[in-house]
Amino acid sequence: xxxxxxxxxxxxxxxxxxxxxxxxxxxxxxxxxxxxxxxxxxxxxxxxxxxxxxxxxxxxxxxxxxxxxxxxxxxxxxxxxxxxxxxxxxxxxxxxxxxxxxxxxxxxxxxxxxxxxxxxx
Length: 121
Hints:
Helices cover 0% and strands 61% of the residues. The protein is built from no helices and eight strands. It has strands spanning 13-18, 22-27, 35-46, 55-62, 65-73, 80-91, 97-106, 109-119. The strands form two sheets. It has a four-stranded antiparallel beta sheet with strand order 1-8-3-6, with no helix packed on it. Strands 2-7-4-5 form a four-stranded antiparallel beta sheet, with no helix packed on it. Strand 4 and strand 5 (65-73) form a beta hairpin.
């Protein structure tokens, strides 16, 4: 039977934030126990006043495999718009985890690309 984290231990929290189109978060493996992570990815873009046909997209890859992708029209001219995604990943004892978020835009400009991983006991 796999062992769980001690009740008095704190859950792991991993985070990366960039002002660019690619963010990568590497979570090292744990040899003694499996872990479950809640993964949140957030893209924030600035939308120009003249946003005719502007769009933004977000792609999430986990360990090199495409997990999710979405492209939408950018709304809110002169303000910000965004995309968010949430998933849960079970990481068996041993291997590391690589999370990669890629933003794409036309007309809009990436302001922030954020990946957070919170361990769930």
